[in-house]
Amino acid sequence: MLRFLVLTSLATLGLSSVQRAEVIYRVVLGGHDLHQTSGREQIIAVSQVINHPEYDKDDINKGYDIALLRLATEATLNSYVQLGSLPPSELILPHNNLCYITGWGHTSTGGSLSDQLKQAYLPLVDHSTCSKSDWWGSYVNNNMVCAGGGAESGCHYDSGGPLNCLFNGQYYVHGITSFVCEHQCNYPKKPTVFTRVSAYIKWMDSVRI
């Protein structure tokens, strides 16, 4: 049964590295529409938020933008709630690898939040390209991954959502949405930046259920 969720620390609003949060947070599993329920949703309290100990809310460019949520009760797996697959530790995917972002963020720069869950194809951008001086430069490090640069991108309030990427015939949660360009969501040479999940597999394994 599911007892942990992976989430960007940005969405935890600067909680300490280990802090009880059952009266603050709930998770909704199986949801699709933010304003209408289908009866398939599971609403579960969060008993603990575990941020990465090196995360600095005042300097997100350092990375470590990842957290685990301990669920107070077990989730039921069904057709609408399934486990995401974690990638092999330290996996680096190639340039233009097939990936998809999902989220309820803004549908355009300055636009409104999406009522329904959206999905967009974002090709992976390798680190050597994304870290060029006229791209993101030193704002991205090896523990991050970039994706996008085409017709679609992540946008504000997509933070915390997954980037699912194809590897050896299977989709893995390769990234967690971290940040976009503050001026424009799909700005040239500023693809969406994600926490690279494969860089934190050992840390996640060290957190005991």
Q: In words, what does this structure look like?
A:
The protein is mainly beta. The protein folds into 2 domains: 2-81 and 202-207, Trypsin-like serine proteases (Thrombin, subunit H), CATH 2.40.10.10; 97-199, Trypsin-like serine proteases (Thrombin, subunit H), CATH 2.40.10. Helices cover 5% and strands 33% of the residues. The protein is built from 2 helices and 12 strands. Strands 7-6-10-11-12-9-8 form a 7-stranded antiparallel β-sheet. Strands 1, 2, 3, 4 and 5 form a 5-stranded antiparallel β-sheet that branches. The longest helix has 6 residues, at 201-206.
Summarize this, please?
The chain is mainly β.
Topology:
Blueprint: E1 2-7, E2 18-20, E3 26-29, E4 42-51, E5 67-75, E6 99-103, E7 118-121, E8 124-125, H1 127-130, E9 144-147, E10 162-167, E11 170-179, E12 192-196, H2 201-206
Antiparallel strand pairs: 1-5, 2-4, 3-4, 4-5, 6-7, 6-10, 8-9, 9-12, 10-11, 11-12
Pfam families: Trypsin
Signal peptide: 1-16
GO molecular function, one term: serine-type endopeptidase activity
Share of helical residues: under 10%
**Oligomeric composition of the shown chains:** single chain
Number of domains: 2
Strand count? 12
Task: Write down the CATH topology of the largest domain.
Answer: Thrombin, subunit H
- Strands of the widest sheet, in order across it, are 7-6-10-11-12-9-8
Shape: globular
